[in-house]
Amino acid sequence: MSVDIERARAQRPGGPPPGEPKHARVWWQRPSIVTAVIGATGGYFFGHWLGNALGSGYQQTATADQNNLSIVLGYVFLTLGWLAGLGVFNDILRLMAGRSIPHVEEEAEARSGLARYFSYTLDHKVVGLQYLVGMIIYFCTAGLFAMAIRTELLSPTYHIFSSSTYIEIVGEHGTMMMMLMTSVITGPFGNYLVPLMIGSKQVAFPRIEALAFWITPAAFLILLSSLLMGGFPFGWTGYAPLSIQSTEGANAYAFAFGLMGISIILSGFNLIGTIICYRAPGMRWGRMPIFIWGVLTTSFMFVLAAPVLLGGMYMLITDRTVQTAFFTDNLGGSAYLYENLFWFFGHPEVYLLALPGFGVVSEIMPVMCRKPLFAYRVSAAGTLGVAILSFFVWQHHLFVSGINPDMRPLFMLTTELISIPTGFIFLVALGTLWKAKIRFTVPMLFCFAFFFNFLLGGVSGVFQSDVPADVLVHGSFFVLAHFHYMIMGGLIFAFMAACYYWLPKMMGIRLNETLGKIQFWTMFIFFNSTFLPLFAVGALGQPRRVFEYAQNLQTLNDWSSISSFLLGGSILLFVANFVMSTVIVRTRETGNPWQSRSLEWQLSSPPPPENFRHIPVVLSGPYEYGRKPEAPPMADLDPPLGVLARAYAPAGARTEVGDG
Amino acid sequence: MLSLPLRVAALVAGFFAVAAIAGFVVVHYFLSSSGPAYEDFTSHVTANTGASVNVVMQEAPQTTVGTDPDWVSYFIRSPQTHQWVHTTNFEVPAGSRVNFTIYGYDGCTPLRNQVWGDVTGTIGNTMTVNGKPVSLLNSWTECSVAHTFAIPNLNINVPVASPMTYQENQNLCSTSPCTPSSPHTVVRFSIRTPSEPGIFFWQCKIPCGLGYLDGNGGPMQTIGFMTGFMEVVG
Amino acid sequence: MSTPGEGAHEAAAAREPTHWLRLLILWVVLSLAADLVIWFVWYPHLPPGRMSDVAQGQQFDMAVLAICGAPVILFIWIYGLYAVIVWRHRPGDEEDGPPIHGNNRVSAAWIMISSALVLFLFGFGTYQLIVPNGAGGGQGASPIWKPSTVDLQVQAIGQQWVWTYRYPQFGGFETTQLVLPKGATIEFNVTSLDVIHSFWAYQLGVKADANPGVNNIAYARPQQLGTFVVRCAELCGLWHGAMFNYGQVVTPAAFMRWAKTTEVRLASLTRQLPPYATTYDPTVIKTLGPVLVKLGLTGAGGGFYGPEVPVQP
After folding, report:
1. Which of A85, A383, B93, B102 could form a disulfide with B47 if both were Cys (CB 3.0 to 4.6 A apart)?
2. How does pLDDT run across C55-100, given as a tens digit for each residue?
């Protein structure tokens, strides 16, 4: 028996005084995408003017016919204007002025369905869906650049693009993917599902979460705008001094990457706070879904690694604009400084691309195998081990760059050690498959493919950790094949698995199963067909980012290119399936189609706005399959009166009726 | 939610809009930016017959045609119209002799590596500067090299001499393309093109990208200014 | 494989304990076969070939890594395939699988075996790094794994966008040609004049980044005559993809002939170059002529910082 209690608004400090009438504001007083664009445009022109006022006196500006300072300041104010136009700063400014915060939530909910998704909203479920659509758009755009790269590499001698266009395309593809796909799983699925999985009504910092999302379109468009200024010729790694030498497009690279770094730091803070502090009673660490472990460790890595990126990009910008000399050797700086700053972030970056994938597939497999997750503690230890060790391996990108040779065996050791916790994930998967009753749904197919791809990627990683073998393959297509197997074969396949698995929960519709199976098989076959030959191409001597290569490698390159076009087709199939299923053929799926025991599936699909009517009490872990008799549901959504109050009350206090 | 036909219509319209934008970007920005035009020196000449073609170029200190007036640039004289064209791409026949004439209107800058003051890869490993044969220019002790014309993959390197006197260096040409009334040098050399067709990039070796680190940015890395393609056509 | 219905329960009970045995046998047989194929068929043809001692070492490393990696890959593949065939969901069976939460012995065995494999690879890799004097990789300015004697020093200077080579033992002449004698231990000193490049002599198995103002040393000993390709392996600007040249390994006698004649031929050029050094600062030109000083040219800095900046020479 429970008592119907009005929804508390405890999370909004300085909340509205009771009885304040609601009023609808005029459209141009309400923050929206339109005001955001206006703010961004105005901000850019202001920043550009400011940069010209400050920097046109430099001799460098006069002789180079470019003013980097005006471009960078333009971007700074563009971002601030964009965010201000969205209403991000409104609540903070109101509180600072001592005023109360109006009924933003009702206002947001009062908008028609689609308009909510284009606004700055505090509902984590809306933010999750915004992330989902955004990530698909970013992925497909960067994927188009990849198609262009493979088109150019069809022939070693006939060049479809001019060399400068080609190198711009290479940089755009790499940077867009590496920058934006950091949040491809934590953004949509982390933000959406973490509160549902831990029994919370909302995230810890909804404003920060929404801010982290709204930074991403700005970062995406700023990166694209680089093409208008001639692009940047140094790939996603941005090695100085080449990045200092480049023309104006490089400013967009540094700024967009730094901006995205801010986004992931913010997202990390929010998720850490939510997971640590907002778990429902009974949700012990040992009962947390493994996906949450993945998101938690990823979030810690966001918060610890991204600031180093920000520092490096900031120094790059100052070197380019106000003539500091951090990375310029003949003026007292060092090119090595940039390499180390970048890779100290860059290596954890690739693990934060991998860990959410681990979380997703480890989460899906027990459901589809109808068995508990094998060795749960080992799995959690594996994700923690990968996260911690990832900060100790970055010099393996620099084995031949002339670092202190003593360091190389050390980093060879740490790099090879990191394959041990990674192996734990495989142990857990294999153990979960043992004597299971595997249902070959589309998410499960993607999970199998994840492990297949990650295995090849991981073993090739061990090849590279061996320094003599790295001398052969560093900077070649072998490395490229390795990380595409890890990131695309791992992360993106996990993303697809997550989409097919959780879309019924998130949108109340299901993706077409037949089309999904076709999409899976085409994607899997053509993905392997594209990247497997590239191991050979690299070991046979083709460096990365080249537009010319040895004639005898043309057959392999052509095979890879044609496969990549077909791979692009299969991604298109996914987008078509997604759009078709969400817009046109909306097959309702409101129950628990996968018969999962996890807490989020105990709610309706999609969940109600406040997630849980009452904070649930968690009674067991999410993987209690196979028990005879069948285990009760994971949590009690309707806890008896006083249970929560007693759980939270200090010893001896008088208990009260309430949700706690 | 809107009705089904409306949703389908909106979706189709959205799809075409996205496809149109993507197509526009691809065609306008990527495919059409194959770079500046190729000056064609292969008409009236058959490849691999030992024939001769003449290529005339100039390097100008200020590129007043365009948005980067402080960038230096090469120009090529069109064989058909005999007008100066702002491009650095040209086609020559394979297996032939190509006689270059380069007008050097720009002043001197020291080379980052003086090895590029040595003439290599030309017929006789020499060039003529204002009629006199020269095979080594010292850009460090004399004010003698303005830019270079180098095709690294054919091992060709020619330092283009600059006007030699202090007086001339104060009165350099300030518009582009330059005319012979401004101080200049005339550099002539010849090369033999390979017998197999191919596309070879050529570059300047002087750090003439003023304002860019190491002098190697800006015009040095922009096709149409101080670097380009020589296409050998079979 | 299964006969559902009568006797299924007994058959299942009788069948259950042999999963691991089947998997083990399958795995051992296939791994052995794969490893034998790798060692005897593939190993002699693995990249980068045997043109130098370090290249041969890299080839050996690739073979050993492949031999270690193949059983790992096969294990996962065999297990996965077995699971797909044997443990699939039969239609009509709505029961869950057995509630196995973990198995400490299996987990412990896995951890120990993977750790042992990893530590073996670490030891092997370190040995293979030290013994061939750094395995052809750049060791920085102070290498710690050096050969006992160095026969030939070659400096590879990276600049945008071509490699030049200096031979200090022959007067320090600088050329775009790379000619090496067979059988000689060669010390490559790699540096750059502008941005970061990477000297990759593919068939020789040498790769060392060229950093501005830094010397990066790598060792190799060519053991076969022939041609090799040198490519730049670090993105260095617009023409990175075309920054390559070919090198030659010739007999020692032919090499001496070439070196001596080139030294003579390039003598006047060598006199103009700065003396051989392990790094160069192109903004400091000691022989800058009075004309250039008078014209206000301050060396090859490109005017990045104005001449009024005191650091600019």
Report:
1. B93
2. 999 999 999 999 999 999 999 999 999 999 999 998 988 888 899 9
Quick one: which of B191, B193, B190, B189 has its CA closest to B95?
B193
* Cα–Cα dist B223/A547, whole Å: 15
Are C294 and B166 spatial neighbours (Cβ–Cβ below 8 Å)? Answer: yes
* Whether A436 contacts chain C with CB within 8 A: yes
Q: Is A192 exposed, middle or buried (0-12, 13-18, 19+ CB in 10 A)?
A: buried
Q: What is the ipTM of this complex?
A: 0.91
Q: What is the block-wise mean pLDDT of chain A (660 residues), using blocks of 10 residues?
A: 46 48 60 91 96 83 84 96 92 87 57 77 92 95 94 91 91 96 96 95 93 96 93 93 92 97 97 95 93 97 96 94 87 91 96 95 95 94 96 95 91 95 96 94 96 96 95 96 96 97 93 94 97 96 93 95 96 93 85 91 89 90 88 86 67 49
Choosing among A159, A471, A544, A552, which should be mutated to test the C contact, i.e. which has the most C CBs within 10 A?
Answer: A471
A393 neighbors A418 (Cβ within 8 angstroms): yes
Q: Where are the alpha helices (DSSP H) in B66-196?
A: 166-170
Which two tokens mark B22?
Answer: 């993507």
CB atoms under 10 Å from CB of A526, counted, come to 20
Which among B160, B162, B147, B150 is positioned nearest to B203, based on CA atoms? B150
In this prediction, residue A22 carries a pLDDT of 52
CATH code assigned to B38-233: 2.60.40.420
Q: Is C2 on the interface with A (CB under 8 A)?
A: no
Q: Provide the residue ranges of all domains of chain C, joining segments of one domain with +.
A: 17-88+105-130, 152-272
| Residue among B156, B171, B169, B101 at smallest CA distance from B130 | B101
Task: Count other Cβ atoms within 10 Å, centred on residue A304.
Answer: 16
Which residues in chain B are contacts of A246 at CB distance < 8 A? 217, 221
3.40.50.150, 1.20.210.10, 3.20.20.140, 1.10.600.10: CATH of A124-584: 1.20.210.10
Q: Which of C209, C244, C305, C309 to mutate to test the interface with A (most CBs of A within 10 A)?
A: C209
Helix (H) / strand (E) containing C247: strand C244-250
Residue A328: which of B216, B179, B61, C54 has the closest Cα? B216
The pTM for the full model equals 0.92
- The domain spans of chain B are 1-33, 38-233
Compute the distance between CA of residue C86 and CA of residue C94 in angstroms, rounded to an integer. 17
Q: Domain C152-272 maps to which CATH number in 3.40.50.2000, 3.40.640.10, 2.60.40.420, 3.20.20.70?
A: 2.60.40.420
Chain A interface, best mutation among B213, B214, B232, by max A CB count within 10 A: B213
Closest approach of A137 to chain B, Cα-based (Å): 11
Q: What is the pLDDT of residue A12?
A: 43
Q: What confidence tens digit (pLDDT) does each residue in C169-201 have?
A: 999 999 999 999 999 999 999 999 999 999 999
Instruction: Centre a 10 Å sphere on the Cβ of residue A455 and count the other Cβ atoms it contains.
Output: 21
Q: Cα A531–A532–A536 angle (5° rounding)?
A: 110
Q: First-to-last CA distance in chain C?
A: 83
Contact C233 A245 (CB under 8 A): no
> Which amino acid is it at C68?
C
Residues A31 and B33 sit within 8 Å (Cβ to Cβ) = no
- Report the largest interatomic distance among the alpha carbons of chain B, rounded to a whole angstrom: 84
Give the residue extent of every domain in chain A: 26-114, 124-584
For residue A466, what are its two tokens? 């061996």
Nearest by CB to residue C297, choosing from B110, B201, B223, is: B110
What length is written for chain A?
Answer: 660
| A to B CB pairs, distance under 8 Å | 82
Chains interfacing with B (3 or more CB pairs < 8 Å): A, C
